[in-house]
Specification:
Blueprint: E1 3-8, H1 37-43, E2 55-58, H2 63-69, E3 78-80, H3 87-101, E4 106-111, E5 115-116, H4 119-134, E6 138-143, E7 154-160, E8 166-172, H5 177-186, E9 189-199, H6 200-210, H7 215-224, H8 230-237, H9 246-251, E10 257-262, E11 266-267, H10 275-278, E12 287-289, E13 293-296, E14 302-304, E15 310-313, E16 318-322, E17 327-331, H11 338-347
Length: about 350
């Protein structure tokens, strides 16, 4: 069975300002290794799928960088959205292209900005998910929770399915702490990691059934797939597709959803506070990057220096980032609020820093 990875690279990553900018969002940053997250995402598929069968979906601003960072990607496999319309239309765009090549090919939809520590375990889980998908299931990977996390959605698992998966009982929104603790203690809940595996004909049928408002646009795209007219049709049709996530549009409605538990050192690297999950810390719990960073009497801090000296003294649980033209200082537990800095810069029309 041929697998067709689809790497979703349309995010803006405002929680990583000042490192992330409009032209260089989170997926293009080397946050977990020396390589950008999108490069790591593609590389961990080696031996499971060919780069010639890999697709990237992104916006016009990021197309050139995405193509450069995934070596060997065919030009035709770079799918550029005319406008951002959320994950359901983005996945549908990839599906029509895969279907034109292989009408029953198995798609593997992956965020471009996540980290996986156990790559062999990840590939084994994806292979098992592909077997489930081959049998007609729409498969989502559920991550075994390691803590009562309030920043993720959850999947309530149901009865076992033949092939190792479980039925999905329900999708749950991000919970409060008490609810998250209850999810953990019950053992019936997994984190929703946003990784999906399905046959292309199955997902296109699901779009037609559960998102009928997309049918006309999808039919037009399918007719034009592989033809010179595809770009013009895409530009006309795509902006009219509903801006809806795959979760709301299909996953919460379809009856053939399966969840496959995974435990492979996954992190969505959601903010600077998550950096210690994906990078080694020193004896005091500090993650320090940059030869000119000087850290004295600090504990559990994230310090990222650029090309000038950055000295941090006597801090605990703080994030300090120097990008060369801007500096961020924020408590780790407030790192999700960095996006508010971007909003403030926009309001003050300081566009050179966005």
């Amino acid at each position: 069975m041929a697998l067709y990875p689809v790497i979703m690279a349309g995010g803006s990553g405002t929680r990583f300002w000042p490192l992330s900018r409009q032209a260089r969002p989170k997926q293009f940053l080397p946050l977990a290794s020396k390589l950008p997250l999108i490069t790591d995402t593609s590389a961990r598929l080696k031996g499971l799928a060919s780069v010639k069968d890999t697709f990237i979906v992104c916006g016009p601003l990021h197309a050139k960088a995405a193509a450069k960072l995934v070596k060997g990607l065919p030009k035709a496999n770079l799918l550029v959205e005319p406008v951002a319309r959320n994950t359901a239309p983005a996945i549908a765009l990839a599906a029509v292209q895969v279907a034109a090549r292989d009408p029953k090919g198995v798609m593997v939809v992956l965020p471009s900005d996540h980290h996986v520590a156990d790559v062999p375990g990840f590939k084994r889980t994806l292979a098992d998910a592909a077997d489930l998908a081959e049998a007609g299931h729409i498969v989502t990977l559920g991550i075994k929770p390691s803590r009562p996390e309030t920043g993720y959605g959850y999947i309530q698992v149901g009865e076992a399915l033949e092939g190792g998966g479980r039925k999905v009982q329900a999708f749950k929104e991000k919970p409060d702490l008490e609810t998250a603790r209850g999810y953990m203690s019950s053992g019936d809940y997994l984190w929703n990691g946003g990784i999906f595996v399905f046959r292309v004909d199955v997902i296109l049928e699901a779009f037609a059934k559960h998102m009928p408002e997309m049918k006309k646009g999808l039919d037009a795209l399918r007719k034009a797939a592989g033809k010179r007219t595809f770009g013009a049709v895409l530009k006309k049709v795509f902006p009219k597709l509903p801006s809806t996530s795959i979760d709301y549009g299909v996953m919460e409605k379809a009856s053939n959803i399966a969840v496959l538990p995974g435990d492979f050192g996954w992190s969505d690297v959601g903010s600077f506070a998550a950096i210690p999950e994906v990078r080694p810390a020193d004896a005091n719990g500090n993650v320090v990057s940059g030869n000119l960073a000087v850290v004295v009497d600090c504990h559990s801090c994230v310090v990222l220096a650029d090309k000038r000296p950055l000295s941090v003294v006597g801090l605990t649980d703080m994030v300090v980032v120097d990008s060369g033209d801007a500096v961020l200082v924020v408590p780790k537990d407030k790192s999700q609020d960095v996006r508010k800095v971007v909003e403030a810069l926009k309001a003050r029309k300081l566009t050179k820093y966005l």
